[in-house]
Write a structure and sequence with these properties.
Layout: E1 5-9, H1 13-23, E2 28-33, E3 49-51, H2 59-79, E4 84-86, E5 89-93, H3 100-109, E6 115-116, H4 119-125, E7 136-140, E8 144-146, H5 148-161, E9 165-168, E10 172-178, E11 184-189, E12 194-197, E13 199-202, H6 208-211, E14 220-229, H7 234-237, E15 244-247, E16 254-260, E17 264-269, H8 286-299, E18 308-318, E19 325-329, E20 332-339, H9 349-361, H10 375-383
Parallel strand pairs: 1-2, 1-13, 2-9, 5-15, 13-20
Antiparallel strand pairs: 3-8, 4-8, 5-7, 6-7, 10-11, 11-12, 14-17, 14-18, 15-16, 16-17, 19-20
Helix pairs in contact: 1-5, 1-9, 2-5
Length: 386
Protein backbone atom coordinates (compact mmCIF):
# COMPACT_ATOMS: atom_id res chain seq x y z
CA UNK A 1 0.00 0.00 0.00
CA UNK A 2 3.02 2.30 -0.02
CA UNK A 3 2.32 5.56 -1.87
CA UNK A 4 -1.39 4.81 -1.84
CA UNK A 5 -4.12 6.51 0.16
CA UNK A 6 -5.73 6.00 3.56
CA UNK A 7 -8.42 7.86 5.45
CA UNK A 8 -8.57 7.76 9.24
CA UNK A 9 -11.98 8.56 10.73
CA UNK A 10 -11.55 10.12 14.17
CA UNK A 11 -8.75 12.37 15.36
CA UNK A 12 -8.29 11.20 18.94
CA UNK A 13 -5.07 9.69 20.22
CA UNK A 14 -5.66 6.36 18.43
CA UNK A 15 -6.62 7.94 15.13
CA UNK A 16 -3.74 10.41 15.14
CA UNK A 17 -1.25 7.70 16.08
CA UNK A 18 -2.56 5.42 13.33
CA UNK A 19 -2.27 8.21 10.78
CA UNK A 20 1.29 8.92 11.90
CA UNK A 21 2.24 5.26 11.59
CA UNK A 22 0.81 5.07 8.08
CA UNK A 23 2.30 8.39 6.95
CA UNK A 24 5.68 7.29 8.26
CA UNK A 25 5.46 4.31 5.91
CA UNK A 26 4.81 6.46 2.85
CA UNK A 27 1.02 6.28 2.78
CA UNK A 28 -0.95 9.38 1.75
CA UNK A 29 -3.06 9.90 4.89
CA UNK A 30 -5.97 12.18 5.72
CA UNK A 31 -7.58 12.29 9.17
CA UNK A 32 -11.24 13.34 9.31
CA UNK A 33 -12.19 14.74 12.72
CA UNK A 34 -15.84 15.67 13.32
CA UNK A 35 -14.98 18.47 15.75
CA UNK A 36 -11.49 19.79 16.54
CA UNK A 37 -8.35 18.12 17.83
CA UNK A 38 -8.74 17.51 21.57
CA UNK A 39 -12.25 18.99 21.75
CA UNK A 40 -13.96 18.90 25.13
CA UNK A 41 -16.29 16.02 24.20
CA UNK A 42 -13.38 13.83 23.15
CA UNK A 43 -12.19 10.73 24.99
CA UNK A 44 -8.63 11.97 24.44
CA UNK A 45 -8.91 15.50 25.83
CA UNK A 46 -7.77 16.79 29.21
CA UNK A 47 -4.71 17.14 31.37
CA UNK A 48 -3.57 13.57 32.00
CA UNK A 49 -3.94 9.83 31.60
CA UNK A 50 -2.35 7.14 33.75
CA UNK A 51 0.25 4.78 32.38
CA UNK A 52 0.69 1.72 34.58
CA UNK A 53 2.01 -1.80 34.14
CA UNK A 54 -0.50 -3.52 36.44
CA UNK A 55 -3.09 -5.50 34.49
CA UNK A 56 -3.91 -8.44 36.70
CA UNK A 57 -3.11 -11.71 34.95
CA UNK A 58 -3.29 -10.16 31.46
CA UNK A 59 0.43 -10.23 30.73
CA UNK A 60 0.05 -9.02 27.14
CA UNK A 61 -1.03 -5.61 28.42
CA UNK A 62 1.94 -5.39 30.78
CA UNK A 63 4.25 -6.09 27.84
CA UNK A 64 2.40 -3.54 25.73
CA UNK A 65 2.87 -0.90 28.44
CA UNK A 66 6.63 -1.47 28.43
CA UNK A 67 6.71 -0.97 24.67
CA UNK A 68 4.37 2.01 24.84
CA UNK A 69 6.59 3.88 27.31
CA UNK A 70 9.48 3.60 24.84
CA UNK A 71 7.29 4.81 21.96
CA UNK A 72 6.02 7.82 23.92
CA UNK A 73 9.63 8.66 24.76
CA UNK A 74 10.53 8.50 21.06
CA UNK A 75 7.66 10.86 20.22
CA UNK A 76 8.70 13.30 22.97
CA UNK A 77 12.28 13.45 21.72
CA UNK A 78 11.15 13.80 18.10
CA UNK A 79 8.74 16.67 18.77
CA UNK A 80 10.48 18.38 21.68
CA UNK A 81 7.34 18.16 23.83
CA UNK A 82 7.03 16.99 27.45
CA UNK A 83 4.59 14.09 27.24
CA UNK A 84 5.16 11.98 30.34
CA UNK A 85 5.91 12.51 34.02
CA UNK A 86 7.10 9.54 36.04
CA UNK A 87 5.32 9.61 39.40
CA UNK A 88 5.34 5.96 40.41
CA UNK A 89 2.10 4.01 40.74
CA UNK A 90 0.66 2.79 44.05
CA UNK A 91 -2.02 0.07 44.00
CA UNK A 92 -3.97 -0.56 47.20
CA UNK A 93 -5.74 -3.91 46.90
CA UNK A 94 -6.69 -7.21 48.42
CA UNK A 95 -5.72 -10.78 47.66
CA UNK A 96 -9.30 -11.65 46.78
CA UNK A 97 -9.84 -8.81 44.31
CA UNK A 98 -8.48 -10.90 41.46
CA UNK A 99 -6.28 -8.10 40.15
CA UNK A 100 -3.67 -6.70 42.49
CA UNK A 101 -1.80 -9.86 43.47
CA UNK A 102 -1.84 -11.37 39.98
CA UNK A 103 -0.73 -8.03 38.56
CA UNK A 104 2.20 -7.99 40.96
CA UNK A 105 3.19 -11.53 39.98
CA UNK A 106 3.00 -10.76 36.26
CA UNK A 107 5.06 -7.58 36.63
CA UNK A 108 7.70 -9.50 38.59
CA UNK A 109 7.78 -12.21 35.91
CA UNK A 110 8.08 -9.56 33.18
CA UNK A 111 11.04 -7.92 34.95
CA UNK A 112 9.15 -4.72 35.73
CA UNK A 113 10.65 -2.99 38.76
CA UNK A 114 7.97 -3.58 41.41
CA UNK A 115 7.68 -3.74 45.20
CA UNK A 116 5.08 -5.30 47.48
CA UNK A 117 4.84 -3.03 50.50
CA UNK A 118 3.67 -3.79 54.03
CA UNK A 119 1.10 -1.33 55.32
CA UNK A 120 3.51 0.23 57.81
CA UNK A 121 5.92 1.07 55.00
CA UNK A 122 3.09 2.65 52.99
CA UNK A 123 2.26 4.82 55.98
CA UNK A 124 5.90 5.88 56.24
CA UNK A 125 6.48 6.55 52.53
CA UNK A 126 3.03 7.83 51.60
CA UNK A 127 1.48 9.28 54.76
CA UNK A 128 -1.25 10.96 52.74
CA UNK A 129 -3.06 7.59 52.52
CA UNK A 130 -5.05 5.87 55.22
CA UNK A 131 -4.46 2.14 54.84
CA UNK A 132 -7.17 -0.07 56.31
CA UNK A 133 -7.68 -3.73 55.36
CA UNK A 134 -5.60 -3.90 52.18
CA UNK A 135 -3.33 -6.93 52.25
CA UNK A 136 -1.74 -6.51 48.81
CA UNK A 137 -0.12 -3.11 48.28
CA UNK A 138 2.08 -2.75 45.22
CA UNK A 139 4.33 0.08 44.14
CA UNK A 140 5.99 0.46 40.74
CA UNK A 141 8.45 3.35 40.47
CA UNK A 142 8.03 3.32 36.70
CA UNK A 143 4.71 4.58 35.44
CA UNK A 144 2.92 7.83 36.02
CA UNK A 145 0.96 10.25 33.91
CA UNK A 146 0.85 11.13 30.24
CA UNK A 147 -0.05 14.73 29.46
CA UNK A 148 -3.02 14.00 27.24
CA UNK A 149 -3.53 17.22 25.31
CA UNK A 150 0.21 17.60 24.80
CA UNK A 151 0.33 14.04 23.43
CA UNK A 152 -2.28 14.97 20.82
CA UNK A 153 -0.29 18.03 19.80
CA UNK A 154 2.86 15.93 19.48
CA UNK A 155 1.03 13.49 17.20
CA UNK A 156 -0.23 16.42 15.14
CA UNK A 157 3.37 17.61 14.80
CA UNK A 158 4.54 14.16 13.70
CA UNK A 159 1.69 13.78 11.22
CA UNK A 160 2.48 17.14 9.63
CA UNK A 161 6.18 16.30 9.44
CA UNK A 162 5.33 13.12 7.52
CA UNK A 163 3.03 14.94 5.10
CA UNK A 164 -0.29 13.76 6.56
CA UNK A 165 -3.36 16.00 6.66
CA UNK A 166 -5.79 16.66 9.52
CA UNK A 167 -9.22 17.93 8.43
CA UNK A 168 -11.31 19.19 11.31
CA UNK A 169 -15.06 19.82 11.32
CA UNK A 170 -15.81 16.90 8.96
CA UNK A 171 -18.69 14.74 10.18
CA UNK A 172 -18.62 11.22 8.77
CA UNK A 173 -22.00 9.49 8.55
CA UNK A 174 -21.02 6.13 7.07
CA UNK A 175 -17.96 4.00 6.39
CA UNK A 176 -18.13 0.81 4.33
CA UNK A 177 -15.88 -1.49 2.35
CA UNK A 178 -16.19 -1.07 -1.39
CA UNK A 179 -14.57 -2.25 -4.60
CA UNK A 180 -13.70 -5.81 -5.53
CA UNK A 181 -14.27 -8.03 -2.47
CA UNK A 182 -14.30 -4.97 -0.22
CA UNK A 183 -10.61 -4.24 -0.79
CA UNK A 184 -11.12 -0.47 -0.62
CA UNK A 185 -13.05 1.80 1.71
CA UNK A 186 -15.67 4.48 1.16
CA UNK A 187 -16.56 7.36 3.49
CA UNK A 188 -19.80 9.35 3.33
CA UNK A 189 -19.80 12.75 5.01
CA UNK A 190 -22.69 14.85 6.28
CA UNK A 191 -23.08 16.88 3.08
CA UNK A 192 -23.70 13.67 1.13
CA UNK A 193 -20.36 13.59 -0.64
CA UNK A 194 -18.19 10.49 -0.64
CA UNK A 195 -14.46 9.81 -0.43
CA UNK A 196 -12.68 6.59 -1.28
CA UNK A 197 -9.28 5.26 -0.29
CA UNK A 198 -7.30 2.07 -0.42
CA UNK A 199 -7.94 1.73 3.30
CA UNK A 200 -10.25 3.49 5.73
CA UNK A 201 -9.39 3.09 9.41
CA UNK A 202 -12.23 3.81 11.84
CA UNK A 203 -11.06 5.17 15.19
CA UNK A 204 -14.22 7.07 16.08
CA UNK A 205 -14.30 6.32 19.81
CA UNK A 206 -17.80 6.65 21.31
CA UNK A 207 -19.10 7.73 17.87
CA UNK A 208 -18.32 4.35 16.27
CA UNK A 209 -22.01 3.52 15.77
CA UNK A 210 -22.55 6.85 14.00
CA UNK A 211 -20.04 5.90 11.31
CA UNK A 212 -20.68 2.12 11.23
CA UNK A 213 -24.46 2.18 11.72
CA UNK A 214 -25.16 -1.28 10.27
CA UNK A 215 -22.40 -3.26 11.96
CA UNK A 216 -23.85 -3.39 15.50
CA UNK A 217 -20.50 -3.68 17.22
CA UNK A 218 -20.69 -4.77 20.87
CA UNK A 219 -19.50 -1.34 22.00
CA UNK A 220 -21.39 1.06 24.23
CA UNK A 221 -20.60 4.69 24.93
CA UNK A 222 -20.53 5.51 28.64
CA UNK A 223 -20.33 8.78 30.46
CA UNK A 224 -17.63 9.26 33.06
CA UNK A 225 -16.59 12.11 35.30
CA UNK A 226 -13.22 13.39 36.45
CA UNK A 227 -12.98 15.59 39.56
CA UNK A 228 -10.24 18.16 40.21
CA UNK A 229 -9.49 19.77 43.58
CA UNK A 230 -7.56 22.96 44.27
CA UNK A 231 -5.58 24.56 47.08
CA UNK A 232 -3.48 21.60 48.22
CA UNK A 233 0.21 21.91 49.16
CA UNK A 234 2.77 20.63 46.67
CA UNK A 235 4.93 19.28 49.49
CA UNK A 236 2.16 16.74 50.21
CA UNK A 237 0.48 16.20 46.85
CA UNK A 238 2.96 17.28 44.21
CA UNK A 239 4.97 15.18 41.79
CA UNK A 240 7.80 13.46 43.62
CA UNK A 241 5.91 12.88 46.85
CA UNK A 242 2.45 11.75 45.73
CA UNK A 243 2.04 8.92 43.19
CA UNK A 244 -0.60 8.01 40.69
CA UNK A 245 -2.75 5.63 42.72
CA UNK A 246 -5.43 2.97 42.37
CA UNK A 247 -7.54 1.90 45.35
CA UNK A 248 -9.99 -0.98 45.34
CA UNK A 249 -9.92 -1.37 41.56
CA UNK A 250 -11.15 -4.96 41.70
CA UNK A 251 -14.35 -3.60 43.26
CA UNK A 252 -14.70 -0.52 41.04
CA UNK A 253 -12.70 1.74 43.28
CA UNK A 254 -11.01 5.09 42.75
CA UNK A 255 -7.86 6.42 41.17
CA UNK A 256 -5.96 9.69 41.28
CA UNK A 257 -2.99 11.78 40.21
CA UNK A 258 -0.61 14.27 41.84
CA UNK A 259 -1.01 18.00 41.34
CA UNK A 260 -1.02 18.97 37.68
CA UNK A 261 -1.93 21.82 35.34
CA UNK A 262 -2.89 24.82 37.50
CA UNK A 263 -2.10 22.83 40.66
CA UNK A 264 -5.11 20.53 40.73
CA UNK A 265 -5.40 17.11 42.37
CA UNK A 266 -7.28 14.68 40.12
CA UNK A 267 -9.46 11.95 41.65
CA UNK A 268 -12.17 9.87 39.98
CA UNK A 269 -14.29 6.77 40.36
CA UNK A 270 -13.29 3.74 38.29
CA UNK A 271 -16.89 2.50 38.15
CA UNK A 272 -18.12 2.29 34.56
CA UNK A 273 -20.77 4.92 34.00
CA UNK A 274 -24.19 4.60 32.38
CA UNK A 275 -24.65 4.18 28.64
CA UNK A 276 -25.17 7.53 26.96
CA UNK A 277 -25.54 9.17 23.58
CA UNK A 278 -22.13 10.67 22.71
CA UNK A 279 -23.90 13.51 20.92
CA UNK A 280 -25.70 14.65 24.06
CA UNK A 281 -23.95 16.75 26.74
CA UNK A 282 -24.38 15.91 30.38
CA UNK A 283 -24.03 18.05 33.51
CA UNK A 284 -21.78 17.17 36.46
CA UNK A 285 -23.19 14.37 38.58
CA UNK A 286 -23.37 15.65 42.13
CA UNK A 287 -23.69 12.13 43.54
CA UNK A 288 -20.43 11.13 41.94
CA UNK A 289 -18.71 14.25 43.27
CA UNK A 290 -19.98 13.33 46.74
CA UNK A 291 -18.73 9.74 46.32
CA UNK A 292 -15.25 10.98 45.44
CA UNK A 293 -15.25 13.38 48.38
CA UNK A 294 -16.38 10.57 50.71
CA UNK A 295 -13.50 8.42 49.43
CA UNK A 296 -11.08 11.27 50.13
CA UNK A 297 -12.40 11.65 53.67
CA UNK A 298 -11.72 7.94 54.26
CA UNK A 299 -8.43 7.54 52.42
CA UNK A 300 -6.92 11.01 51.84
CA UNK A 301 -8.13 12.94 54.89
CA UNK A 302 -5.57 15.73 54.52
CA UNK A 303 -7.15 16.52 51.12
CA UNK A 304 -10.76 16.04 52.19
CA UNK A 305 -11.52 19.74 52.60
CA UNK A 306 -9.93 20.83 49.33
CA UNK A 307 -12.26 23.02 47.29
CA UNK A 308 -13.73 21.58 44.11
CA UNK A 309 -12.00 23.16 41.11
CA UNK A 310 -13.61 21.48 38.12
CA UNK A 311 -15.74 18.48 37.18
CA UNK A 312 -14.71 17.33 33.72
CA UNK A 313 -16.49 14.80 31.53
CA UNK A 314 -14.99 11.86 29.73
CA UNK A 315 -16.50 9.16 27.54
CA UNK A 316 -15.53 5.53 27.19
CA UNK A 317 -16.24 3.18 24.28
CA UNK A 318 -16.71 -0.06 26.21
CA UNK A 319 -16.62 -3.68 25.05
CA UNK A 320 -18.18 -6.41 27.23
CA UNK A 321 -14.75 -7.86 28.10
CA UNK A 322 -12.95 -4.47 28.16
CA UNK A 323 -10.46 -5.70 25.55
CA UNK A 324 -9.95 -3.64 22.41
CA UNK A 325 -11.27 -4.29 18.91
CA UNK A 326 -8.47 -4.27 16.32
CA UNK A 327 -9.69 -6.02 13.19
CA UNK A 328 -10.78 -5.81 9.59
CA UNK A 329 -14.40 -5.01 8.82
CA UNK A 330 -16.35 -8.29 8.39
CA UNK A 331 -17.36 -7.21 4.86
CA UNK A 332 -13.88 -6.49 3.58
CA UNK A 333 -10.31 -5.45 4.32
CA UNK A 334 -10.87 -2.01 2.85
CA UNK A 335 -12.05 -0.90 6.31
CA UNK A 336 -10.06 -1.51 9.49
CA UNK A 337 -11.68 -0.98 12.89
CA UNK A 338 -10.03 0.29 16.06
CA UNK A 339 -12.62 0.54 18.81
CA UNK A 340 -13.64 -0.47 22.32
CA UNK A 341 -10.75 1.16 24.14
CA UNK A 342 -12.77 0.90 27.34
CA UNK A 343 -11.18 3.69 29.35
CA UNK A 344 -7.65 2.27 29.30
CA UNK A 345 -6.52 2.66 25.68
CA UNK A 346 -4.84 6.06 25.81
CA UNK A 347 -1.60 4.80 27.34
CA UNK A 348 -1.17 2.45 24.37
CA UNK A 349 -1.98 5.12 21.79
CA UNK A 350 1.22 5.14 19.75
CA UNK A 351 1.53 1.35 19.89
CA UNK A 352 -2.11 0.79 18.85
CA UNK A 353 -1.50 3.16 15.96
CA UNK A 354 1.32 0.89 14.80
CA UNK A 355 -0.85 -2.21 15.21
CA UNK A 356 -3.71 -0.72 13.17
CA UNK A 357 -1.26 0.44 10.52
CA UNK A 358 0.11 -3.10 10.31
CA UNK A 359 -3.43 -4.41 9.80
CA UNK A 360 -4.09 -1.88 7.06
CA UNK A 361 -0.80 -2.67 5.32
CA UNK A 362 -1.14 -6.44 5.77
CA UNK A 363 2.11 -6.55 7.74
CA UNK A 364 2.94 -8.66 10.81
CA UNK A 365 1.92 -6.79 13.97
CA UNK A 366 4.32 -6.22 16.86
CA UNK A 367 1.92 -8.05 19.22
CA UNK A 368 -0.51 -10.89 18.51
CA UNK A 369 -4.00 -9.63 17.76
CA UNK A 370 -6.11 -12.73 18.43
CA UNK A 371 -7.32 -11.28 21.72
CA UNK A 372 -8.63 -8.21 19.90
CA UNK A 373 -10.45 -9.81 16.96
CA UNK A 374 -14.20 -9.46 16.44
CA UNK A 375 -14.74 -13.20 16.24
CA UNK A 376 -14.33 -13.53 20.01
CA UNK A 377 -17.79 -12.08 20.56
CA UNK A 378 -19.43 -14.68 18.34
CA UNK A 379 -17.38 -17.41 19.99
CA UNK A 380 -18.51 -16.18 23.43
CA UNK A 381 -22.11 -16.14 22.25
CA UNK A 382 -21.83 -19.64 20.83
CA UNK A 383 -20.24 -20.92 24.06
CA UNK A 384 -23.11 -19.40 26.06
CA UNK A 385 -25.66 -21.01 23.75
CA UNK A 386 -26.70 -17.68 22.28
Amino acid sequence: MANQAAIVVGGGVIGMATACALAGRGVDVTVLERYTLGHEWASSHGLSRAIRHAYGSRAIYTRMVTRSLALWDDLARETGRHLYTETGVLSLGKAEDGETLSGYEVMRDENVLVERLPSEEVRARFPQFVVTDEDVIVYTPQGGMLHASECLLALRDRLSAHGGVLREGVQVTRVEPTGAQGEQGRVTVSDGSTLTADRVIVTAGPWVHDVLPDLRLPVRATRQQIIYFDGLPAEQFGVGVFPVFLAGIGEGGFYGFPLQGPGWLKVASHVIGPTSDPNEPYPPDEREIEAVQAFMRRRLPSAADAPLAFADRCRYDMTPDEDFILDDHPAGRGVVIGSGFSGHGFKFGVLIGELLAALALDKPPAFPLDRFRLRRFQEASDAAGG
